[in-house]
Amino acid sequence: MKILFAIKRMEGAAGGAERVFALISSRLAARGHDVAVLSFDPPGTESFYPLAPGIRRIFLPLGDPSRPSRMRDMARRIPALRRAVRAESPDLVIGFMHSMFVPMALALFGTGIPLIASEHIVPDHYRARRAEFILLVLAAFIARRMTVISESVRGLYPAFLRRKICVVPNPVETAAFAVPDRKSSRVILSVGRLDPQKDQTLLIEAFSILAARHPEWALRIVGEGALRSVLEERIGAAGLEGRVHLPGIVRDIAGEYARAAIFVLPSLYESFGLTSAEAMASGLPVIGFSDCPGTNELVVDGETGILVRVRTPEALAQAMESLMQDSALSRRYGQAGAQRLGAFDPERITTIWENLVVRIVNKV
Q1: In sequence order, which residues have a C-beta less than 8 Å from that of residue 340 and are 6 or more positions away?
Q2: Is the distance from CB of 349 to CB of 21 less than 8 angstroms?
Q3: Sign of dihedral through CA atoms 196, 275, 255, 9?
């Protein structure tokens, strides 16, 4: 099967969706499919996450892919995408995230080339982005199928759209993150884009409540984004320089999990929470909020971690301190979490993708 994967950006893109994109495209290539990857990156740039050697790269350097797309970018990209896809002549195109599958859907309209629109966020993301959601709905109708990563996320979409949507969970490479003998650690870890959606300001406020009582503990927030200056300001105002670290994008993310004792993801919403799953694979207890879609599906409160019911710094601090003071409970949660990830085995998820591609191409 000749498959074209498309995504807005791969250079310096360290998000969960990009990790899944690289993993699935590489595994399908390893199964003998003819796979190419198209992005708006400058020619010759490397993908942050490695791709299988046999995968061909197609570069369309139109606009800055690290910035939000503007209308003039869209106007240039749509005809360029149409020309590039027709030249490649794939059996099927898989567009990851609305930043790519929306222009791709418009580009492929009328060509007869089937498109899978792979969405990796929840509809709440579009609450203040009505125009983007309208474009998403339009793209979903043009695409042959739209994928989301859980049944509960599918249920958040309007009924008229759900018939186009199928569920394909995110894979988790448990073997890459397994830590058989976790050493004693005093590090609280959070991983994610520095963005209001991730609510890291609340995490810093919660840690500031505990910092004086637990001087041996530190907080690491791994990731990069527009919120950095705000977070640095909060850290300075709380006098937590040297206690709260913002190392930016880290390539050895498995090492970060291995050196941590507790994982906290304070997000307002997640479609899946891939970093939480990776933390669980590493044997870490996970703390999140019960009102966060994605997190509340993955974490079992009182079994694999803690789901905080009230979104306040005090409530989050209480949950963190309960694990900081009880290493045996932390270990028990971590061990239980690692055992729950069989459903996200990469080979199983790759097979789901492969079966979906075959059904669409063969019009089954």
Answers
A1: 280, 300, 304
A2: no
A3: negative
Instruction: Report the CATH fold assignment for 174-343.
Output: Rossmann fold (3.40.50)
More confident residue, 39 or 274: 39
Q: Note the pTM of the prediction, 2 decimals.
A: 0.85
Q: Are 245 and 220 in contact (CB under 8 A)?
A: yes
Q: What average pLDDT does this structure show over 162-175?
A: 92
23 — pLDDT class (breaks 50, 70, 90):
very high
Residue with tokens 């498309």: 6
* Straight-line distance from the first to the last Cα atom of the chain, in angstroms, rounded to the nearest whole number: 15
Summarised one tens digit per residue, pLDDT across range 36-63 is 999 999 999 999 999 999 999 999 999 9
Amino acid at 47: S
| 339: CB partners within 8 A, 6+ apart | none
CA distances from 37 to 88, 90, 103 (A): 11, 11, 16
Helical ranges in 32-70 per DSSP H: none
2-171+345-361 and 174-343 have identical folds: yes
The answer to whether residues 9 and 28 touch, using CB atoms and an 8 Å cutoff, is no
For residues 222 and 15, what is the distance between their CA atoms, to the nearest angstrom?
11
3-state class of 108 per DSSP?
A: helix
* CATH number among 3.40.50.2000, 3.40.50.300, 3.40.50.720, 3.20.80.10, domain 2-171+345-361: 3.40.50.2000
Confidence at 174, pLDDT banded by 50, 70, 90: confident
Which residues, in sequence order, are bridge partners of residue 188? 219, 262
> How far does CA 233 lie from the centroid of its chain?
26
CA 357 from chain center: how many Å?
22
Give me the residue spans of the domains in the chain.
Answer: 2-171+345-361, 174-343
Separation of alpha carbons 322 and 154, rounded Å: 34
